[in-house]
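Troubleshooting: if your tokenizer reports a length mismatch, compare your output against this known-good record of 104 residues.
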Amino acid sequence: MNRNVERLHFLAQTVTLEARHLALTDARLFFEPFTEDRARLLRTDVELGERVDAFVARFGRLQDTLADKLLPALLSELAESPGSAIDNLNRAERLGYVASVEQW
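Known-good structure output:
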């Protein structure tokens, strides 16, 4: 297996793990609607605050891994020239890897 394919494999495994962790946090945080009243609890409910922090961190990490690492590596392997994040997303949409850049 060449080095680029190994990196793609590693990044795909990383994204899978990050997505799994995000889904677990999502289930714990959004088991009920996140209302304005729940948001007010962030000042006093340490556990809720930690769940929100974990969700934000995991979401951001997954987004970064996908957009900044996996997608450029995939485009390179496909003999495409990676560009800016939005250009990469547009190219991925045209190739069918991203359903909608707007929804991304």
